[in-house]
Write a structure and sequence with these properties.
Strand order of the largest sheet: 1-3-2
Strand content: 5-15%
Low-confidence stretches: 89-94, 99-105
Largest sheet: 3 strands, antiparallel
Helix content: 40-55%
Structural class: alpha+beta
Number of strands: 6
Number of helices: 7
CATH class of the largest domain: Mainly Alpha
Shape: elongated
Length: 181
Amino acid sequence: MPKLTDTQSLILSRAATRPGNLAMPLPEGLHGAAANVAVTRMVERGWLEEVDADIRKGEPLWRETGDGHGTTLIVTEVGLDAIGIEPVVAKATSGARKAKPDPAPMSEAPKSPAIRAGTKQAQIIALLQRPEGASIGEIVAATGWQAHSARGMISGALKKKLGLVITSAKEAGRGTVHRIT
């Protein structure tokens, strides 16, 4: 892992927890020339990337481009790797923002994102991959989460973010059982 300053580590770790890996807003007290120097160094090292800001979503601006638009900062895969986080979503986020056409032929199947072993998300995926699937009660027992958190993980992280196909069926004695197909 590269040597990070406290400020760089703070910017990268906060961005890793935000939707779309947004690095903005910067930490309180970091503004002006100090912010410019910190961000410039991080961009040079490939840890941050300047992308068009989606003003309709209310994304904070890093700088204005002068034509009524602006840019914001996102953490790259290299930046997430610098703080030891598996870059699952960063590639999809930055790729969608750049809006570059994909030169790969349409016949190739999309690669599935890497799932870090030992996480609760990995536990839930393992439960859902079993032939018997898993009910919300079984997921709650395995993770210690509330039922609404387990349902949110299935619909948000697994279905929407990772694109997994999950089916649900009611079974006698178990309730609704979810499976990855």
